[in-house]
Amino acid sequence: MIKTYRGMLANDTEDRIRLKTNRGDIGYRIVKFQVMGINEDKNYETVVQINKISITPTDSVDFTDGDLLAAALYGDTDSLDQGSSTIIFDHEIFNQDIFVSAKATAGTTAINYYLELEQVKLNENQSTMATLQSLRRLALPRN
Questions:
Q1: What is the mean pLDDT of the chain?
Q2: Global pTM?
Q3: How many CB atoms are closer than 10 A to CB 32?
Q4: CA-wise closest residue to 96 among 114, 72, 71, 122
């Protein structure tokens, strides 16, 4: 089953997508992630990230960060007929809440996002492993 989520993020904000269940036997993986400007404003650029934990929105993307699930860069300038975006996401399975954040590198225009998650039934071992990985990440200090 595919679940869809969409929203609009103002600059320097974060949305929480509630996914966790009491038993943790349902997992999710990203199958589509898209971003789009909200209007025809030009000369802005925004970084949108999906993380496993809540973060302070940042325009720096670190692909070595184990909590990063996806990143997108959206830009719209006078030289482009329409906005352009670069999107990269992981196919990792997770069973806890995720967080979508936006940080403008130029301008302060809000941005829309669209996310499709594939729902995956986890067996007891997969569920335990996914939950323990989430707990371990929360316990470890972040750099």
A1: 84
A2: 0.83
A3: 13
A4: 122
